[in-house]
Write a structure and sequence with these properties.
The chain is built from four helices and six strands, in the order αααββαββββ. It has 149 residues and is α+β, with helices and mostly antiparallel strands. Strand 1 and strand 2 form a beta hairpin.
Length: 149
């Protein structure tokens, strides 16, 4: 009888622990989420090129988004709107070199290179190049918005 009870307890523990395993998304699901982020990033970049930085950054920023520019943090979509006033250049171009997403499907990030074409203080064409890193968060409506750039 004692062995029977121990056997039942061990079996119960095995079945219980198997049910507690973290469910991992399939490879196909992970790739689909990465594509969603990549497509969102491409739409963001296209909007910046066609309609200007100001409109694009505000369209793709989450309400609690943060920009880091130099050593300054611009915290919140409202603060970003204020910061971006008058910065409606269409000379910013970028494309991610890498995209990844959390197994939960609610956060992801991208990074890559950007170029920014503008006129310097004398009105001469100039170009800046650099690296960008963006953190994306899935919104309640299923869309992706950046929370860090």
């Amino acid at each position: 009888m004692k062995n029977k009870i121990i056997g039942i307890m061990v079996t119960t523990m095995l079945f219980t622990s198997c049910g507690m395993r973290e469910k991992r998304p399939s490879h196909e699901m992970m790739e689909a989420w990465k594509k969603e982020i990549s497509d969102t990033e491409a739409t963001f970049a296209q909007m910046a090129k066609e309609e200007g930085m100001n409109k694009a950054f505000l369209a793709f920023a989450a309400d609690d988004a943060v920009l880091m520019r130099g050593n300054e943090l611009i915290e919140s979509k409202a603060a970003i709107a204020e910061y971006m006033k008058g910065q409606n250049s269409k000379g910013l171009a970028w494309s991610p070199e890498f995209v990844d997403v959390a197994k939960s499907g609610d956060m992801g990030y991208t990074y890559g290179y950007y170029t920014f074409n503008y006129e310097d203080q004398e009105g001469n064409p100039a170009e800046a190049r650099g690296v960008f890193h963006t953190v994306w968060k899935r919104q309640e409506d299923g869309s992706w918005k950046f929370v860090w750039d």
